[in-house]
Specification:
Oligomer: heterodimer
Radius of gyration of chain A: 21 Å
GO molecular function (chain B): transmembrane transporter activity
Keywords (chain B): Amino-acid transport, Cell membrane, Membrane, Transmembrane, Transmembrane helix, Transport
Helix content of chain B: over 70%
Transmembrane segments (chain B): 12-31, 43-69, 76-94, 100-123, 135-157, 190-210, 238-261, 273-300, 307-327
CATH class of chain A: Mainly Alpha
Order of helices and strands of chain B: HHHHHHHEEHHHHHHH
Number of helices of chain B: 14
Structural class of chain B: mainly alpha
Largest sheet of chain B: 2 strands, antiparallel
Strand content of chain A: under 5%
GO biological process, one term (chain B): amino acid transport
CATH topology of chain A: ABC transporter involved in vitamin B12 uptake, BtuC
Distance between the termini of chain B: 17 Å
Protein name (chain B): Branched-chain amino acid ABC transporter permease
Chain lengths: 362, 336
């Protein structure tokens, strides 16, 4: 128990020292880079064609949102949960089951504005129950138990035909269409995804500075002390799982609308681990990390094949590339791409300060 | 045992009744009413034996996993890859030399070597950072899975059972009595029984080695407090390497076993990783008897489940895990 916590303290210390000055107010509001990124994301449909818009950017935002829920749990709660994709997948399945789809014998045919809240509620319940199980253990045990839950869900969807339609999954899921807009058309869908991802991002950012988020980070750093101070440690952890499940559920809804189908392949164990890779590669200390990780992952997944073939290698080895990249990140930068960038900037700043005779960071 | 009965009389009673019912189900000739309700006794006995032998296989995989975890606090999520690697090595050896026994030896040695390399090159560098180690093992399992897919392709392989083990044998267990009064005995594949007995033998040998030898004493001391053990002058790094080699080697042997009575293909690594996770969660992390009990329970649940409630076999396994977590989060046989 104590060993694990020492580790998480160690991992997160750089982040907390960096973030502390910005702990009040919106940290990104004075950052010109953030404004530029936001502007580019908003005018993306003018720049990118349909393929880039949906296959790259919308997919990145969806995967990033799932990874954001993992980042929320791992970064602020110290709980690495591998079942976030299973929760998203469960929500996606529920949208397909309650809503309208090509499998009329399974789908109940509810309108989307009824099916989506229902699916989200069920997904939050699923995630909270799984979380309630997982918080009975600590640290690395959490990884194992959530991995086991994710795998069990995958095998269950494969075997169950009554609800999940076995390994063929549910196809031709209908997407919302109202106010005269087909919301699954490329540009509207991109904005739906962007709005959802932005909402989740700012929600996580806000929660991390709200009393609940601060208490959660206290629980992460020193659960004994927090419980001595009168905080209910387990309740905070389970609540964190509930919040994360809601975020993952939202991403699941978008995912099923994106592909218009859902099958066990999209909740497989490998896909669950991909989410962890995305979060870790991007960096689990800040909410923006998962989105960076997702962009890297999606770009690799889409273009690695062509790239590998072009330089004369076997194009099927892109998982090897991802695995090696992940290993490199874990080996050299425990807080991902963000950590690398921050360290680079700090060294630049440090040099500038030293030259100007200002306070050096030592 | 007696202390368990004294402390939990109700649970002990339930366990004793369950064992008695199970023994009666296995040894007695079933009355016709029961056969109508549940099905043929032969089916039941086959499921039980399949479950027990599958439990033996799970024990081989999970014991290495739990041993490594117990000593080094390292959740080796690449354990499934070691299993599959051992299986492929065993297949290559048995296909080229035709010797089944030799394939065990080579698979053990090669996977143990991989284990040694992992410990020396990777895990020693990040000792005490268990979260990071776990991440590294995830990365390694991805890399290994892809390398093995590269080398062996996506085909199914099955390791040839040696001639002297092919065919069923008759066990002195009644499955039914014919109308002529002639008893019918259970016939069961010899190779599975031999493999099960071998895994029991390995389990007992491990228990003896851990509890009756000096190196076992060192390992147990390391499980309890490795810092103090290192302070007493034991060269703990050597012990770590040895234990990692043993655990990995056991996974390699399990790969050959699994390749003999099931098959080898990409994806099996994750399946067996999951199985060993569930087994050690149920049995208790770091405990060898716990791994044995967990493997038995999970193997039986999986096989009986797939016979009697085929759609939800995996859910039964999962429910057992949930139940254990809810009632005894540290696992059935773990110390607090």
């Amino acid at each position: 128990m104590s060993v694990t916590h020492d580790v998480s303290v160690q991992v997160h210390r750089p982040a907390s020292t960096v973030e502390r000055p910005a702990a009040r107010g919106w940290p990104d509001i004075n950052n010109p880079a953030a404004w530029i990124v936001a502007a580019i994301l908003l005018i993306m449909p003018l720049i990118a064609n349909g393929f880039f818009l949906i296959e790259i950017f919308a997919t990145t935002l969806i995967l990033g949102t799932v990874a954001l829920s993992l980042m929320f749990l791992a970064g602020y709660g110290g709980m690495v949960s591998l079942m976030q994709l299973s929760i998203a997948g469960f929500c996606a399945y529920m949208v397909a089951v309650f809503g309208v789809s090509g499998n009329a014998n399974i789908s109940l045919g509810w309108p989307w504005w009824l099916a989506v809240p229902m699916a989200l509620t069920l997904a939050v319940m699923f995630g909270t129950l799984g979380g309630a199980l997982a918080v009975r253990t600590e640290g690395i045990y959490t990884i194992m138990i959530t991995l086991a839950i994710g795998a069990a869900f995958y095998y269950f969807t494969n075997q169950n035909w009554a609800i999940f339609n076995g390994h063929t999954g549910i196809n031709n899921v209908s997407t919302p269409r109202f106010w005269g807009v087909d919301w699954r058309a490329d540009i509207p869908f991109y904005y739906v995804v962007l709005a959802t991802a932005g909402l989740c991002y700012f929600a996580v950012d806000y929660i991390s500075r709200a009393p609940f988020g601060l208490a959660l980070q206290g629980v992460r750093d020193n659960p004994r002390r927090m419980s001595a101070l009168g905080f209910n440690v387990n309740a905070h952890r389970v609540a964190a799982y509930a919040v994360a499940s809601f975020i993952a559920g939202l991403a699941g809804v978008l995912q099923v609308w994106n592909y218009r189908q859902i099958s066990p392949g999209s909740v497989s164990v490998g896909a669950c681990i991909d989410i962890l890779i995305i979060a870790v590669v991007g960096g689990i200390t800040r909410p923006v990390g998962p989105y960076i990780g997702a962009l890297v992952f999606v770009l690799l997944r889409t273009f690695a094949l062509d790239f590998l073939v072009k330089i004369g290698l076997d194009g099927n080895r892109f998982r090897l590339l991802i695995g090696l990249g992940f290993l490199a990140i874990v080996f050299w930068s425990s807080d991902g791409v963000i950590g690398l960038w921050q360290r680079w900037r700090q060294s630049q700043l440090g040099e500038a300060n030293r030259q100007g005779g200002g306070r050096g960071h030592g | 045992m007696t202390r368990f009965i004294e402390r939990h009389p109700a649970w002990a009673l339930i366990v004793i009744i369950a064992v008695a019912v199970a023994l009666w189900l296995i040894f007695a000739v079933w009355p016709p009413g029961l056969e109508e309700a549940v099905g043929r006794k032969r089916v039941f006995l086959n499921a039980v034996f399949n479950g027990i032998t599958l439990g033996g296989l799970y024990f081989l995989v999970a014991s290495g996993f739990t041993l490594i975890f117990g000593l080094m606090r390292n959740v080796n999520l690449a354990h499934g890859s070691l299993y599959l690697f051992g299986g492929y090595v065993g297949y290559a050896i048995s296909a080229s030399t035709g010797s089944w026994v030799l394939s065990f030896i080579v698979a053990f040695v090669l996977t143990a070597l991989v284990g040694v390399l992992l410990q020396v090159l990777v895990f020693r560098r990040m000792e005490g950072q268990d979260l990071r180690q776990t991440m590294v093992t995830i990365g390694l399992s991805i890399v290994f899975a892809d390398l093995m897919l590269w080398a062996c392709g996506g085909d199914f392989y099955q390791i040839q059972t040696p001639n002297w083990l092919i065919g069923p044998i008759e066990l002195p267990l009644l499955t039914a009595v014919k109308s002529s009064g002639e008893p019918v005995y259970l016939r069961y594949p010899l190779v599975r029984l031999v493999i099960f007995l071998a895994s029991v033998a390995i389990g007992i040998a491990m228990w003896l080695a851990l509890n009756r030898t000096r190196i076992g004493m060192i390992i147990r001391a390391g499980v309890d407090d490795r810092d103090i053990l290192a302070a007493t002058g034991v060269r703990i790094q050597v012990v770590f390497v040895l234990v990692f080699a043993l655990g990995a080697g056991l996974a390699g042997i399990a790969g050959v076993v699994g390749g003999t009575f099931q098959s080898l293909s990409p994806g099996e690594d994750i399946r067996f990783l999951l199985a060993s996770l569930v087994v050690v969660i149920v049995g208790g992390m770091g405990s060898i008897p716990g791994a044995a009990l967990g493997a038995l329970i999970i193997g039986l649940a999986e096989q009986l489940g797939s016979v009697y409630i085929p759609t939800y076999a995996i859910v039964v396994t999962f429910l057992i895990m949930v139940l254990v977590l809810a009632l005894r989060p540290q696992g059935l046989l773990a110390r607090r």
